[in-house]
Amino acid sequence: MFLNSNLFEPGKSKLERNFVQVLTKQNNRLDGRSADDFRDVELTFGAEWGIVALTVGQTRVLAEVTCEIDAPTSARPNEGALFLNVDIDGVSFLDEVQTTHDQRVLALNSLLERTFRSSRCLDLESLCIASEQHVWYVRVNVKVLNHDGNLYDACTTAALAALMHFRRPDVTYNDKQIRTYSEKERELVPMLFLHYPVSVTYCVYKSSSKPVVDPTLLEENAADSVIVLSFNSYQELCTLNAGGSAPTTAHIIMQCARNASRRCKSMVQFIRKALALDTERRQAKQPVGLLELMRSTMPKITYNRLMNEESDVPVTNNEPVSNMATVATPQHQEPQNMIKEQRKQNKQEPVTPMDDSTWLPSTDEVKDKDNPKLKIKETLPQVKETRPKGSNNNRGKGKGGKNQKPKRTESDSEEETKPVI
Amino acid sequence: MEKQKDEKSGNEKLRQMSCEFNSLSRCDGSVMYSQGATIVIAAVIGPVETKTQNLCIDGSYLECNYRPKAGLPQVKERIREAAIRDVLELALLSESYPRSKMSVQVQELEDRGSMDACALNASCLAMLIGGLPMKYSFAAVHCIINEKGEIVLDPDLSEMQHQRASFTFAFDSVEGNLLLIQTKGSFKIAEFNDIECLCRAASAQIFEFYRSHLANYHGRASKETATTPMEET
Fold it and tell me: Where in the cell does this protein reside (chain B) (predicted)?
């Protein structure tokens, strides 16, 4: 019968792939967004601390944070630990070939690991109760409820929001005895962060030079390569994951990185605002909890609503654009997009002082270096997002180093925050 | 009936129910169902191709999974899963799709009491909305006797802390037969009978809830079914 149930997934058949390729070539998207438009993000906080449900378009994930006291490892006796796990066995992955399933789990887990653990976003020393004896272990469990593309961003955003929402009970350590205080005795303690990383995903197609942001499942499956970038709120690169078979130039990656860094910054702002709104509601004894997913007695906490209240820069003109895109002819649209791009570039130059001149001379070398790699990749098209662990990872690190050089001044700000905390 | 309900004390009422159909895009039918603050998501896929080891030539294979909010399913969840599977196997008209698989997934979102009953009701609604063939629909009701000997129907988490005995009943919609009984704790046979009658009456409300919401969803809402008595309270 159906030996390859991958065919059930949108974007896996040749026809759909060709369709998406042609669509991106025409600078169109199936849902009417432009290439740099994001879908709206909605956050719902649970009744307990550390539970967050996140909806991006049709993609839904649920993140939960728990903590427990245990003995530390001998290598780091005065640090707690952060564990992350993505569970995609849920209702969305009923019929899937085992290999793609494993690949997805691996890709997502490694992304979370690098974004949160390797970048050391939590202050782990603050999780220590008694050195060499008792530390907190914090676990983040992300459950995928529905997959409609861009699980990467959904998982990192949900995990970060859940960590920021989470509060642990206060403890004291006296005479070799741990005393845990209940919520009534002492206020719960929030996590201490060194920085706040979030990822942004781009899809690159062979037919078009313009990467597509926040892909749907159809676009993600049909993409030739997927680039995932994690930035923190100081706009420092935490993860770069670039794989696949589309020939990507350093130019495109840098362009993605610049846009992504801005998006990540505003995303973290959005989470902060959402948390503030949540505490406001809790203090006012208004109903909180996942029940809001269904009842919506309160206005929903969505990115577009919260972030457009004062700032006009983000995707306010979402709907008019989508209408235009469906009605207007390609000729009409091209000048529009050109203007848009130009505007963006005008905008970018003042925003990001580090510019082409600092790294462009080296691009030719980079290109030459990259090209053989890309050719090798093209011969192995079936290896996709999960591969970057090896060779691409190193590449990512190289880029990261280059990217951070001009930003030294900014990266200092992270060190400045440490003593404050 | 309506009048009787008004006379009843708060202990003998079901909590407010609500549901949202097809909130997930990647399955044949899904429902987000809540009773009070307890929320579950149930999703079905079927009939689909099955593995050869599960293939059954005279009926379809039923796969049922219950997933807790965090972590892997433990013994408690396995028991719940088995209860759901038992009831579903009774209700599912499996002969209509031989050599195929029906899959039901229940995901807990928030457990604030009466989880067993909620999971069962959600899976029934998911089967109905997914269009899987069933002999009858079913409704489950949870009830406890607290330390004072009072009967509490559909308790929430705080009420469940003081329980002497707890009961979960599931009834079918056609003949009102008992499909499932789960009891815990000590009680008298007379109490058991009382509670069964109470739960049976409550199950009628749940069936009414199914009917009105499904009619609403399919755009055939009549005036009588547009608002359920539960939502008025």
Answer: Nucleus
Q: Would A5 be classed as within a structural domain?
A: no
Ranges of beta strands (E only) in A212-367 are 212-213, 225-232, 237-242, 301-302
pLDDT of residue A244: 83
The total number of structural domains that make up chain A? 1
Fold observed for domain B2-227: Ribosomal Protein S5; domain 2 (3.30.230)
Domain ranges of chain B: 2-227
Cβ within 8 Å of residue B218, ≥6 positions away? none
Q: Where are the beta strands (DSSP E) in A310-386?
A: none
Measured in angstroms, the CA of A407 and the nearest CA of chain B are apart by 39
- Is ipTM strictly over 0.90? no
Name the band, by pLDDT with cuts 50, 70 and 90, for residue B3: very low
> Does the model's pTM come out above 0.90?
no
Is 90 exceeded by the pLDDT of residue B222? Answer: no
Give the count of Cβ contacts less than 8 A between chain A and B: 83
B223 pLDDT above the threshold of 90: no
Top residue of A31, A94, A218 to mutate, by most chain B CBs within 10 Å, is: A94
**Inter-chain CB proximity B110 and A291 less than 8 Å:** yes
| CB proximity B48 to A under 8 Å | yes
| pLDDT of A322 above 60 | no
The residue written with tokens 């929030």 in the block is: A190
> A141 touching B, CB under 8 A?
yes
Closest by CA to A249, choosing from A158, A342, A338, A356, is A356
- Tokens representing B14 are 């079901």
Residue A165 lies in a domain: yes
Chain A partners within 8 Å of B105 (Cβ): 90-91, 94
Contacts of A46 in chain B (CB under 8 A): 110
Give me the half-sphere count of Cα atoms (radius 13 Å) on the Cβ side of residue A239.
33
